[in-house]
Amino acid sequence: MAKEMKGTGSNPLDMANFLSGEVNKSLKDGSFLDKVSPITQDLLKYWFDESFSDLRDFNFHKGQKQAILNIIYLHEVLGIENVLGLYLNTNPEILQRMDVDDLSKEKYQHPMYAVKMATGTGKTWVLNAILIWQYLNARFESLNIEYGGEKSGKFSKNFLIVAPGLIVYNRLLDAFIGKEDEQGNRDFETSDFYKFKELFIPNYYTDVILTFIQNSVVKKEEISSKVTGDGLIAITNWHLLAGVEEEVVIDNPLEYPTEVLSNALPISPGTSGGNSLESLDNNFLKGNELEYLAQLTDLVVFNDEAHHIHEVKKGEEIFEVEWQRSLNFISKDKKNRFIQIDFSATPFSNTSGKNKIKHYFPHIIVDFDLKAAVVNGLVKMIAIDKRKEIDSIDLDFKAIRDGRKVIGLSEGQRLMLRAGLKKLQILDSEFTKLDKNKHPKMLIMCEDTQVAPFVSEFLYNEGLSDDDVMEIHSNRKGEVTEKQWNEIKQRLFNIDNYEKPKVIVSVLMLREGFDVNNISVIVPLRSSDATILLEQTIGRGLRLMWREPEYVETKAEDRKKVLIDKKEPSNYLDLLSIIEHPKYMDFYNKFLEEGIVIDVTDTPKSGNTLGDMITVGLRENYRNFDFYWPIINREREEILSKEELSLDNLEPFDIPLSSLQKIKGEGGEKFESHDIIVRTRFGEYNVTADLFSSESYNEFISKIINSITSQIQSFKQGQKSFPVMQINNAEIAGLIDNYIRYKLFNTNFNPLENENWRILLMSANSITNHIIKEISKKIYQLQTNVNVREAEVKKIFFSQVDTLRMRKNYSLEISKSIYNRLPYPSNKGGLEKLFIENVDLDGRVDSFVKINEYYHTFATITYIREDGLLARYFPDFIIKVSNDIYIVETKSDHMMSSFNVQSKRIATLDFIEKINQLKGENRMDSKWHYVLLGETTFRGMLNKNASIKEILDYSVLTESKVKGNLDDYL
Predict the structure, then answer these.
(1) For the chain, which terminus, N or C, has the lower number of CB atoms within 10 Å?
(2) Could you tell me the pLDDT band of residue 773, with boundaries at 50, 70 and 90?
(3) 82 CB burial (10 A radius; 0-12, 13-18, 19+)
(4) In what order do the strands lie in the sheet containing 927-934?
(5) Are 376 and 63 in contact (CB under 8 A)?
């Protein structure tokens, strides 16, 4: 059972970094995608290809992307079966520096991957992506088997997700089945999978994935009893695997020697009283849940906060924690059909002694550390508040005790608390000036539960009320009971949304899972020697508070100023302040040397915490300058006419069908010829020739529609929904089918005869893209073909957005807009700045506004991108001069002729043509125009003293001009 622990050191990190380089190289040269399934190809393209990611408001960041790629590469491309294989198949030389015998342990004899990612960088999104990848591949493998295919054994539809405690457990339930209301009901639409389905799930798999999740999630008390459909997602905390009710954490070992001894020794010595190893194992593993999980033929286990699972060293012996023993039992007969994926920001154990060497888990496959997270702006920057008074006064920073009993706080602790309070008060007063809904919080980590009441009392004496302070611990327990948890969780997890409490006083309970965003100050009164504890404490405050897009630019400038130029920050947005504790100076100094944190020795002055960020509201007489944006909807859903569904305007593919049939290939095999590869987006199509049925052909058509329209979704304005797509999908499906059968190749074509389906799937980037482009044009034409006399018009006023946040240094005070100031870009924003200045000064201009795509989400126009997909376009400005309204796009000269700029121009002219057919009361009693204004034209005419109206009228473009129909001008 026991052996000398040699440790791994940092060797696993070396392997992970080497692996990342190999994976990225393989992805770039295309060999990665060539070696994975069509399902995986689908997912990787959807997640990471710019043609999709550029259209989304949120995407995987580089750390998440690397983790997903590395796991898929190891598992699907290299076929790793155990931890030793990680090294043998990547960089075996590293094994010379490691204990190879240690990797022969039972627990390392299956596919096992550890993801090291800094707290707050979204480990759960990686978990979600891997689950989707596993499930879809397993599902379509099952379908393939029905047609004579083989099961690879690499994929599973069964998942076990293990949390370190009740807090993370409930967070995971929120992520999978939605947040819980006060009555205990969960709303699936608040789950991560539903809220972020645009990111996680390609449209053509949405129903499959969402149905699986809704029908397959099993809570910890339901494991082995709840019947699920196509697979299992079991979510539990580690206590179920350990066979205990809840974890006990000892704050004062001398006070509770029995519990300490019990924790140190998994069993009592001797075999009397039923304490033989065999009887104890049988007793421990007899639970229905473990037996049920052990009997599954395959299983993927996700361990969240997996640093809990490492071996524990007592003296010269090492012991497996009960959690790991249970996993060993569950995996025993599964071999490589048991896949373990561990997530942790701190996947290491420390050696005892002065040097405290970190030994990292041997199966780490990606290292996205705190420095990378800070540099990329994914977590807050960290400041160590080193008070000058602390440096000059020799103080005690431990609680005052009478024997073992705490009787008060030391002067050092009081000083730290006052420093934290002062910082919090400054941030609170400044932050609410910028955004009244942003409430910074302070987290105080106490040395034990006896100290916590004294901390709360001190805070009350400093002027805080009962509502300002939340004391949360559970009398020596690192995890609260279910009953206690139900009482506090509503208040605790919504803490970001409320002004109070301002301060959270805790001991160990909030180490993990306390995933709130507004922790801005941390006071670590606890003086443990455990580095991992301090890292976890800091982790509670790393999550970004100021996530909105308008803050991205100023925060990036501050990161450069702090991390590269080594200067003080200009603002305190997303800057975590840690009040210095002298016990942790070595830890702080290490981070300072690495450039992760900064030194702050002076208290920020009021007014200097926001930098140049300001909130701008509506001016007092804003109604005199307001605009509305007309949304034209069909009054009713109409059946499209034969003329509307005509194929006449659709272009055929440029390679004759006869030529394509020659290279189609025979039988059920894939082919490679003349650089044209038979590649399908759908897993079952390329297994056997019989598999392309009428059902799957319909699915192919559905996926074409979804690919085209996926980014043109309904948007919300208040409580009303304004649908962008109003065309019946069934009619579009019929159009696509007719196009493929009768026009695509300029001859009759039956995809279900003679394996003709292969032709549709060969060189997908050519034929499929051609179909998408042609159908996109048709949908666009149908969408804009609205009889305005029968249409319903909805007016959305710009003043409904009553506040904007912007940078004062990159905005102008103006007089002719609903807002007191308007912003312009800090990077190459000179043209927009000049335009705003001159429009505001022109006496003939009545009003104008700069359209902000993050706020004015309704002011959008649908256009066709160069790749054939439909997308949304937000013009720069809207201007009113007398009875004329101008939609204006300012562009540098070199951008004027780009395809997308011209496509936006044509789409806007189509939009304006419809607007001008409306009754006067539906278009502000004005004629609408579109202006694509080049920089040279604008500056040149300004120099000739032209008015804004003269410049705009000179540049007005009609549809005839753009499309080259000059007859209207003769």
Answers:
(1) C
(2) confident
(3) middle
(4) 847-850, 877-881, 884-891, 927-934
(5) yes
What is the b/e burial string over 146-158, where b = at least 16 CB atoms within 10 angstroms of the residue's CB?
A: eeebeeeebbbbb
CA 747 vs. chain centroid, Å, equals 46
Helix (H) or strand (E) holding 385: strand 381-385
Q: Which of 775, 784, 781, 785 is nearest to 868 (CA)?
A: 775
Q: How far is CA 674 from CA 32, 249, 763, in A?
A: 21, 66, 10
Which of 379, 387, 377, 374 lies closest to 595, judged by CA?
374
What CATH class has 373-610?
Answer: alpha beta
Which two three-digit tokens encode residue 109?
A: 């004899």
Q: Which residues contact 614 (CB under 8 A, 6 or more apart)?
A: 434, 805, 806, 807, 808, 811, 821
What tokens appear for 129 in the block?
A: 């992506």
- If you ran DSSP here, which 8-state letter would residue 191 be given? S
Residue 251: Cβ within 10 Å count: 21
Token pair recorded at residue 806: 């912007």
Task: Give the SS3 label for residue 827.
Answer: coil
Three-class secondary structure of residue 934 per DSSP: strand
> 839: closest CA among 810, 787, 800, 878?
878
Residue length of the chain: 970
Rounded to a whole number of angstroms, the CA Rg of the chain reads 32
DSSP 478: S
Instruction: State percent of the chain over pLDDT 90.
Output: 34
Cβ neighbours of residue 66 closer than 8 Å, sequence gap 6 or more: 20, 23, 24, 366, 368
**Cα–Cα distances in angstroms (integers) from residue 140 to residues 70, 76, 155, 474, 691, in the given order:** 22, 15, 10, 47, 12
Q: Is residue 636 predicted with pLDDT exceeding 70?
A: no
CA geometry: angle 760, 766, 771, nearest 5 deg? 60
Distance CA 21, CA 32 (A): 13
**CA–CA gap between residue 833 and residue 942 (Å, rounded):** 14
572/587 Cα distance (integer angstroms): 23
Q: What are the φ/ψ torsions at residue 141 (nearest 5 degrees)?
A: -65, -40
Judged on CB neighbours under 10 Å (0-12, 13-18, 19+), 917 is middle
Counts for the chain of helices (H) and strands (E), in that order: 34, 36
Categorise residue 836: left if φ over 0, alpha if ψ from -120 to 50, beta otherwise. Answer: alpha
Contacts of residue 334, defined as CB under 8 A and 6 or more positions apart, other chains included, come to 110, 296, 297, 298, 299
Whether a cis peptide bond, with omega within 30° of 0, leads into 501 is yes
Task: State how beta strands 338-344 and 299-304 pair.
Answer: parallel
- Report d(CA 21, CA 779) in Å as an integer: 43
Residue 125: which H helix or E strand, with range?
helix 123-146
Q: Taking the alpha carbons of 147, 150, 153, 155 in that order, is the dihedral positive or negative?
A: negative
User: φ and ψ at 494, to 5 degrees?
Assistant: -105, 20
Average pLDDT, the chain: 78
| Residue ranges of domains in the chain | 11-268+277-368, 373-610, 635-784, 793-969
- Per the CB < 8 A criterion, the answer to whether 161 and 127 are in contact is yes
The per-residue pLDDT for range 324-381, each reduced to its tens digit, is 778 888 888 888 899 999 998 888 877 665 666 788 899 999 999 888 898 889 999 8
Please write the tens of the pLDDT for every residue from 245-290: 554 443 443 333 444 334 434 343 343 444 444 444 444 444 578 8
Across 114-118, 149-153, 870-874, the highest mean pLDDT is recorded for 114-118
